[in-house]
Amino acid sequence: MKILPLTVLSTAMALLAGCATVPPPGPRLDSSLTSRSQSDRIKYIIIHYTVSDLPRSIRTLTQDVVSSHYLLTDTEQPFFYTLVDESRQANHAGLSSWGIYNQLNSASIGIEIVNPGFTETPQGRVYAPFKQAQIDQLILLLKDIVKRHNIKPENILGHNDIAPQRKQDPGPMFPWKQLADAGLVTWPEPSRVAARMPGFQEQLPEVLWFQRKLAEFGYAVPQTGELDEATRTVITVFQSKYRQSLYDGMPDAETAAILDVLTAPKPVLPPPPPAAPVQGATPAE
């Protein structure tokens, strides 16, 4: 057996120690510059109901293939479970589109609300109401997200808005008007709707007009000129959001007036005239 000199062993051990502790070189990064052409990844907030109770909702959203960023409980004092960090993608939207965007998972925050959804009865489908305490908490969270991500009012949507042929949530019992009153979502001004009603009552537009207006607003809808099942489904979703008293999927004058207001440019108001100087006033120093 050959015995190595002590100096050789010391040198070898030092080299091995150096190899074990020195990390490999990383990329050289300079963050002194920034691009003007950029925006927040989060552009949409999508609202859902869970169609189940709280324990099953938790199990589904934490153990299954679907997920959401937030889960709002239906407890006496509702609160949110934060299930997915906002910086990461949650799988809540599925096959979806709104306007020019498709597959909205990558550009949205998903909020699930514990609610049983609907029940089929001999009189038709009956939707369950939401607790007011849930809506109060939801509005607080929405205001926080909107402020942090600069979400536009027209980009707070229901799951049925972005997937009308597949989904019904949050359904016609969801109080969108409360969100509008809180300054969170777009809402048709009643006086403008009333002003347009007589013209549409006299002459209802063709089906293709409804299809084009719905597509302009953001919905994925056929452009066939025919009142097919897919078109009626989209009209039903639209009505269940903006006219919850009647959502039968039939194009009518009130639906046309609401749709026309929501897609029409808002009038530009002239600037107020300058205030007249007060006689005898002394100019401020």
Labels describing this entry:
globular, 285 residues, 12% strand, alpha/beta, disordered C terminus
The total of helices stands at: 9
Determine Rg (CA atoms, Å).
Answer: 28 Å
- What's the SSE pattern? HEHEEEEEEEHEHHHHHH
Number of strands: 9
Q: Summarize model confidence as the mean pLDDT.
A: 90
Largest sheet, order of strands side by side? 3-2-6-1-9
Q: How would you describe the shape?
A: globular
- Biggest beta sheet attributes: 5 strands, mixed
Q: Unreliable segments (pLDDT under 50, ≥5 consecutive)?
A: 281-285
Percent of residues in β-strands = 5-15%
Describe what you observe in this structure:
The protein has 285 residues and is α/β, with parallel strands linked by helices. It contains 9 helices and 9 strands. A 5-stranded mixed β-sheet has the order 3-2-6-1-9, with helices on both faces. It has a two-stranded antiparallel sheet with strand order 4-5. The protein has a two-stranded antiparallel sheet with strand order 7-8. Helix 6 (190-202) packs across helix 9 and helix 7 packs parallel to helix 9. The longest helix has 18 residues, at 132-149. It is globular, with a radius of gyration of 28 Å. Mean pLDDT is 90; it is low at 281-285.
Q: Would you summarize the structure shown here?
A:
The protein has 285 residues and is α/β, with parallel strands linked by helices. Helices cover 36% and strands 12% of the residues. The chain is built from 9 helices and 9 strands.
